[in-house]
Write a structure and sequence with these properties.
The chain is an alpha+beta fold and about 130 residues long. Helix content is about 20%, strand content about 35%. About 25% of the residues are buried.
Length: about 130
């Protein structure tokens, strides 16, 4: 995740799962890619932005989604990093329906997943600059 002042970068998902929902930028790791390389690539692909410096590891979260019968539909392991944003404004990539700098004090208006709110709160408490 990227932070800038008292805001966090959010994207509106353009694909399933969670199509149309606001979230942190992220995506699938490619073979041979480190998790930090994945974070940098996904930020660039989804928003055109990059961190100003390094990343700080915040958390590793499992997102398990089941269907009505209880069968697992999706299981993602989310590796959450925080960084200060470099220069520029977000430009949504082809898998994003939007991107915005969301005020930390107004995140309730974005209907974020509870675990996303927790990891953003953890990042907001880090000493600045991050990384």
């Amino acid at each position: 995740m990227l932070l800038r002042g008292d805001t966090v970068l959010l994207i509106r998902r353009g694909r399933s799962p969670r199509l149309g929902e606001w979230s942190l930028p992220g995506g699938a790791q490619e073979l041979g890619e480190t998790v930090q390389e994945t974070a940098r690539r996904e930020l660039a692909e989804e928003t055109g932005l990059a961190p100003a410096g390094g990343f700080v590891l915040l958390d590793v979260v499992d997102s398990i989604q089941r269907d009505a019968e209880g069968r697992i539909r999706f299981h993602y392991t989310l590796v959450d990093f925080a960084a200060e944003a470099g220069p520029g404004e977000p430009v949504p990539g082809d898998d994003c329906a939007g991107a915005t700098w969301a005020p930390l004090a107004a995140l309730h208006g974005f209907a974020l997943w509870e675990r996303t709110l927790e990891v953003i709160a953890r990042a907001a408490r880090l000493p600045r600059p991050i990384g």
